[in-house]
Design a protein that fits this description.
With 135 residues, the chain is mostly helical. It folds into two domains: 50 residues, no CATH class; 61 residues, Alpha-Beta Plaits, CATH 3.30.70. It is built from six helices and three strands. A three-stranded antiparallel sheet has the order 1-3-2. The longest helix is centred in the first third of the chain and has 17 residues. The radius of gyration is 22 Å and the shape is flat. The relative contact order is 0.11.
């Protein structure tokens, strides 16, 4: 077996393992610019946490918004709930966020405070997610 054939076989096995695995990502934070393990630059750590969305996720979780879904997935799942006017607007380039707000406003009772709109996801409190398409 040649080196190239062995590499291809190894790569194929690796992709097989990856395709059956549940991937999780770990975000490493740099505590300071000096590479000193005992020195923590709180401002630098805060900026890193904000940049990777950790701060927003913690705020949303603390507010009790347990259900989160990417806007495109939310719209794909609930596009049948759209009002005819909203559906027409969604086909003319209205943003995913505005269309998602139309769905929630039309179909989730007492949604004020139970929904948060992030940069790429919509967050709903427990129990409100099931009420989106009750018709």
């Amino acid at each position: 077996m040649t080196v190239v054939a062995r590499f291809q076989q190894s790569l194929h096995e690796l992709f097989g393992v990856l395709s059956t695995s549940r991937l999780q990502f770990i975000r490493c934070l740099s505590p300071n610019g000096n590479f000193d393990h005992a020195d923590f630059d709180n401002d630098k750590i805060d900026r890193q946490l904000e940049a990777c969305g950790i701060v927003e996720s913690i705020q949303v979780s603390a507010a009790g918004h347990a259900n989160k879904i990417v806007y495109a997935s939310f719209l794909k799942r609930y596009q049948l709930c759209l009002l005819p006017a909203s559906f027409k607007r969604s086909n003319t380039g209205l943003s995913d966020i505005a269309t998602a707000k139309d769905i929630v406003a039309a179909h989730v009772r007492r949604h004020i405070g139970s929904v948060r709109y992030g940069i790429s996801r919509i967050f709903l409190k427990q129990g409100h997610f099931q009420g989106v398409c009750t018709r």
